[in-house]
Structures are given as structure tokens and as C-alpha cells.
Design goal:
Layout: H1 29-42, H2 46-59
Helix pairs in contact: 1-2
């Protein structure tokens, strides 16, 4: 390996903005099992399935309608 590298002519990664960000989220075991079952039957990882669902909700600006009893 070299002691020094010249990055003056380097360019930024054009795909860096498209990279996914890892977060921690707490979900009920039943919710995880639900997405795991659907994912397994469609050969899609359950994390990708959850991401697709949330992405669709955001794209369609879905609002959550809840009533506390």
C-alpha cells in the first residue's frame, strides 16, 4: 500500500443518496411474524417487505386513523 493517496481528482459516489439507512425500530412479535409469513410465501425478505409497505404509505401520503378506546 502507498503511504499517501491523491484524491484530488476523485468524484463523489452518485449512488450515495440512494443507500438505505439502518435504524432500530421496535415492533410487536405478531407484526414481525406477519411480514415474515408474507415474505416467505413471496420469496422476499421481510425487512424489504416492510420497507416496501412503508414506502407505499409515504408515496400515497396515507394517514393513520386510530381511535383509542
Amino acid at each position: 500500500m502507498r503511504d499517501n493517496y491523491d484524491f484530488s481528482k476523485g468524484i463523489k459516489n452518485p449512488y450515495a443518496k440512494r443507500l438505505k439507512k439502518q435504524i432500530t425500530i421496535r415492533l410487536d412479535p405478531e407484526t414481525i411474524d406477519y411480514f415474515k409469513t408474507i415474505g416467505a410465501s413471496n420469496n422476499i425478505p421481510y425487512q424489504s417487505l416492510i420497507n416496501l409497505y412503508l414506502k407505499d404509505c409515504a408515496a400515497h401520503k396515507k394517514k393513520l386513523k386510530m381511535q383509542w378506546v
